[in-house]
Structure formats: structure tokens, C-alpha cells
Amino acid sequence: MSNIGKLITFSRLLKEESVIMIPKVQRDYAYGRQESKVEEILDGMLSTMLTAVQDNKAEIFDFVYGGSYVKKNNESSGLIPLDGQQRLTTLFLLHFYASVIQQNVTSDEVECLKKFRYETRQSATDFCEALVGNIRNDIIKENSKGIENIKSQVQDNPKYLPSYNSDPTIVSMLNVLDKIETKCKEYEIENLWTKLINQDNIQFYSLSLDKFGLTDDLYIKMNSRGKKLTEFEIFKSDLEKAIKNISSDLKDQMSIKIDNSWMDLLWDYANMSEGGSDIVKKADDGYMCLFKNIFRIEMFRRGLETKTNRPASIDEIITDEDSIQQVMSIFDKLSEIQKDEGIQNYWNSYFYFSDNVIGKDDKIRLFWSQKQNQKPVFFLAMDRDLSVPEIVYFYSIYLIRSRKKEKNIALKCLRVIRNLVTANVRVNSARYDMLAGFLSDAENIINNDGRLSEGEHTFISTSCEEERYKTNTLNLQDYNSLLRYENHNILQGSIMLFIEQYVKDTTDTNELFKQLKHFEKIFNNDSPKNFEKIRIGFINDYIEYMQYEPSMENEESMTRRYFVHKADDLSQFFIKNERRRNQKAILEVLATKFTTLEELKEPTEKCKEFNVNSWRYYFTKYSSANIEDTKYGCYAWDDKVKKPLEMVILNSSYHSEYNIEWKMLNHILELELRENKVNYSLDNHASSPFVMNKYGVTFTITQNGWEVQCNSKEVIDAISNSGTSIAKIKEDENSNIYLINLEDTQCNLDYIDLAKGIIQDIEKAYSYIQRS
User: Is 0.85 topped by the overall pTM?
Assistant: First the structure.
């Protein structure tokens, strides 16, 4: 190990260096904090040290990195520790206590301890000097028969100033002295001072970083980590202990990388330019989060967990040398990417995000809707727990880097993986219980340079078949040309519906690209602004293209339908799905009825293609009304064959008298008159009727016309006298219900306009009756 540092003891380090200076940028001494985990670490460290002295065996305590305190010409002297402050301070206090309890240790002998100095605060500087000098001398003089309660002895000394109680480093030192006293009494080692000075039992590697250009900035980056042991520092201690039990060499390698090459990655992430202690905390928190995510990847990859997204323990992951090498390899590749290209640049060389509808043809688009997620997965891994898709991308890029795949092959692999992941996300099957299979499939794809092997895979089978077809059948030029359309915001990685419709053999793809270009012409970057015209443009008399909603697959009546409710729903209609129907007929409508986006008809023109007795007329003319209150884009009929006009708008995915839903025409009528909420209302449940609140008159649409409930004969007579065909269909002591037969009405008004006219007639009739 001589190539990575000099093996040395604390006493020999004091002899060789003119001073050991803990600089101002260092955090406070933390091992004396009275927290259970910290106390556990300190107890273990002291036990290991004293056992080594007692058994006269060597124990190596990691590395101490640092640079020179004084530099002049080519000579330097003194040491400013970059890492190792906590261990050095603990050794300083152990040596101090040993010098007090062993009789006849002179002031000259302990003079070397004065080389250990603190500059975190002036109070810490003064305390350390006084502790080794006057305070020590007074304690020895006053306790010639033995030292008891060293902490109180120090605090009661006149040289101990009241202000010291406000310095967290000093308070921590006193607590550690108290712990040292307890442990030394437990071990009862004679002549402890002499053994610490003369025996090489407690050792560490001292490594000078002068040749690396040690600067104040580096000190700040590495050491200014808050005022107490962070979760990551505790985790790091436990991790190094676990690795050391397996391999001391790997433990040493891991320790160096955590504090150096890997730390550069975290520091860049934390964005040092923002400054302040929060940046330091962000680096520590990011490190902890990154380790957790890498451990989680390993947990699922190895099959240690197959269902639940839970944290992985150190003992689960660090089991042998191979497991340690695997974790180190992942960090090494991230660090390598950061050093060579920068993580953001590397990520951008493969992936992009966009608000455009049309896709690019040179990189892979990720369809992540949340803006806060639109950054490299490596940075996301430092922010929070990764989702299943993010873990797959993280692991895939690591594999590509570790296997040194060429750029074009890497792009192909990631493209196939993107298409498969997106397909699973689209059908809500990207769960943690599938993650182990996804990681295995991704590795299969990368090992085969972007080709998916035959056989069973965890990714959706139809998507696997599509990727096999595209990579195994299409020529390279056609395959590369398809990336643009896979990146389209509606198609999102899948063009199999178009392939099955327009590729007649394995060589002729002219019609395929013709239709894809036409699709892009209609669904261009301006299409969201024209969504309403596109939505109704597909409605026609000869194709029933409203889709069965997947959750009603087992219903006999199949009366519920799913329609394009928002722009994102379009993907469901143009991506091959075995649970959809008439998809090829929809492509035919697109190819023959859609010329340009600009030529699509407005709702008021499009509705003229249908009879006023057809639900399609109202679905088209009042299209925006049919979007407003349907949460899932689902519609239903109780009897679609005989009563199609009684179409129901659902605000859930189920049709029930207890759910929020409206008969479509009732709902449109209420929306048309909504400005006057005092006079008109429509209950949100069970396809309730439209109500004229002031008069207690209700309207509800039926296949034969409007059913009107009204108990005023004068009003009904007034409606009849206006030329509207009306007949009583139900009479009892509580209500009189009449049917306004729309088919017999001799006018060109649609049912909504007729109802509005009848409502006006009713209001006029009531007004006349009241005046009379």
C-alpha cells in the first residue's frame, strides 16, 4: 500500500510535522455528540484502539489526507488535514488522557501535543493550548494519587473559560474525554502513554495531496459538511466497516474514491457556485441518495427483492468482493462520464425532452410529463428514490458505458429500451414487481447490440414483437428513418399499427412513410390548438370508432365507450392495442378524410353531416360541452341499439345511479343556460333531469323526444298552442309527464334549440297565469 500513502502513527506524525492544523473551513469535532449512532461509532473506535494496544497488534485506521501548512519554494512543512480530522482529534485526546494518568510523564514529553492545533474557532485554539499546558499541569499537581472524572477536572480549572461552553468542538472534546476515561478503566492498560508513543499499534495512512493542487476551495468542498455527523457520514462508516471485513484493499480503494473522484461528481451536482452551507448539505444528501438508489438497483438485479420498493441494507448488498466491485464499478462509470463529457452533456447526446408534437430524428425522446423530472437520471438519483423507468435507464446507461458500446449501437439499444419501457408505462404496468425482469431484459438488449432475443420477456409481448420486427426485418435506412415518428408525441415509440396497415412486404415501405408523413402533417406542432376540430373530424356515420373502455372488457352489453377526451388520449387510438377496435378503420379515415389541418371543419359545420336525431350531431356540435365534465372520456348507453340518443356522459369509469353522470343532451341544455343558475339546475347523479327551479318543471331527453314533467294544464296548453307536438304519457296524483315528440316538430331546430324555445314558452305561460 506504499503507493497510496505512508503508514504512520499519531506520535510519529507529530514528530515529523511542525504543526497539525485543523483549519477554519473544517466542521466542528463531532464524535462527542450525544447521539446513539455517534456514541456507537466512538465506542467501537476506542475499543479497537485500546484492544490493539493491549494485545500489541497493529490496527490501521483508514487514511489522513492533507496538504502543507507552510509552502516555500520547493519545501513545505506542517499538515492541514483534508480528511481525518475526527480520528486525529480522538487520538490527540487519547494521548492527552494517557499523559495525565501515567505518572512521571513530564511537560517536555507532552510538548509534542501542542503541535496539534484547532482554528475552527479562537476558543478551540485557546482551549487545546491550555489543555496540554496549564490545565494538565494543575490536574497532575492536584491529583497525585490518581485522576478521577477528567471532564469535571478540566471544567473546574481556572483556565477553563465560561465561553468554552458555547463552543461545540470543546463540548464534544470533553464528552470524548469522559468516554476515554471510562474505556481506559475498562481495559486497565499500564503505561498507556509509553505504549502509545513507542508501539506502532494504532496506525493510519498519511497521504499528501500537494501534487494535486490543494486549494481552499477543495477544503470547503470536502469538509464544510454541517455541524454534526450526517446520515451519509454514519452510512459511510458502516459501509467501510462491512467492506473491511471482506477485503482491506477494497475498503482502502473505496475510501479514497468516496472522498475524492466520486465526490467531484457530487460536488458538481450540488452546484458550488450557489454557495452557502446548503450546498454542502446538498452534496452529502445527494451522496446518500445515490448510494441508496444504486443499492436498490443491485437488490432487484440480484433478485434479493422482487416486489417491494424498499431500502436495501449494507449487509444485503456488500456480501463478497464481486458485490463490492459491482457497486464501485457503477460509481466509477458515473465519475468517468462526469470527467470525460459531463453528465448533462452525455445525457443530452442520447435523450431529449420537448413540448413539440413532432419528433426529432437524431436522438431519443423521453415522454416524461413532469418538468421537475426532465433531467439526467443520475441527477434524479441524487434527489430522490428513482421510479421503475428511471432505474431501467440508469442501469442501461451504466451497462452501455461499462461494455464500451459505440455511439450508434448505444443509441439503438437505448431506443429499443425506451420503446419497451414507454409501452409498459402506457398500460400502467411499470411496477416494482416487474423491475427485476426489466433489468434482465435491458441487459439482454445491450448484450445483443439492440436486438431482443426470442422467448419470454417481462416487457409487454406485443411491444417486444414490434421491436423484433423493426430491428430484424427493416433495412438500416428505413429503421433509422422511423426514429422521427417514434419520437412523435402521439405515437410514443410505437408505429406497428402503421406497419401492419401499410407494409405489404418486407421491402416496400413507401406507403408506410407516405402515411406517416401525412399523420405528421395533421398532428403537427399546431395540432393542440386545433384539437377540437381533430377530435370531431373522426366522427362519421359508417365507422363506430369509439373504443371499448378496458375495464369493461367482461361486460356483456359493452355499452360503455372511450372517446378522445384530451390530446394525450390520441395515443390510445394510434398505437396498436389488442383491446382496441376499428383502429385500422381510423387510419383509413385519417388517410382519406383529413387533407390538411386547416381544412378540418369547425363543430358548427361538421355537425351538418349528421341528422338531428343522431347522437353524433350533438356530440359534434356541442363538442366542448362533452369534454368539460367527463373526467375519463367515458360515455355509456343503457340500450345503444334502440336508444342511442340517450347517451350518458360519465365523470368516472362506471355507469351507475350512484355515480356522477349526465344524459348528454340534459347536460348540454344545462350548460347552454348555465349563466342563470338561479332558475335552472341539473343534479350531478344518476342521469337526473334538467330542472326549471322556479316552476318545478323538469326536462329529460329520451329517444322519442323530451319528457316534460309539469302539473300546470294552462302551461301545457300554451306549449301545444305554440305549434309544438305534445302528448301526455303518464298521469298520477304526484305528476303529469308529457312527451314533446321531436320527430313531429316541423322546424329545422335541433333538440337543444327546441328545448330552449319550449322553456321560453313555459316561462311566458307562467308569467301570463300569474298576471291573470
Answer: no
